[in-house]
Amino acid sequence: MIKAVIFDLDDTLISENEYVKSGLEVVSRYLEKKYMKNTQTIYKELLNCYEENKKNIFNRWLEKNQIKYTSEEIEEIIKIYRCHKPKIQFYCDVIPTINKLKEKNIKIGIITDGYIETQKSKLNALNANKIFDEIILTDELGKEYWKPNPKGFEIIMKKLNVKFEEMMYVGDNPEKDFFIGNIYPITCIRIYRNNGIYRYKNYKSNIKEKYKIKNLEEIINII
Question: pTM here?
Answer without folding.
Answer: 0.92
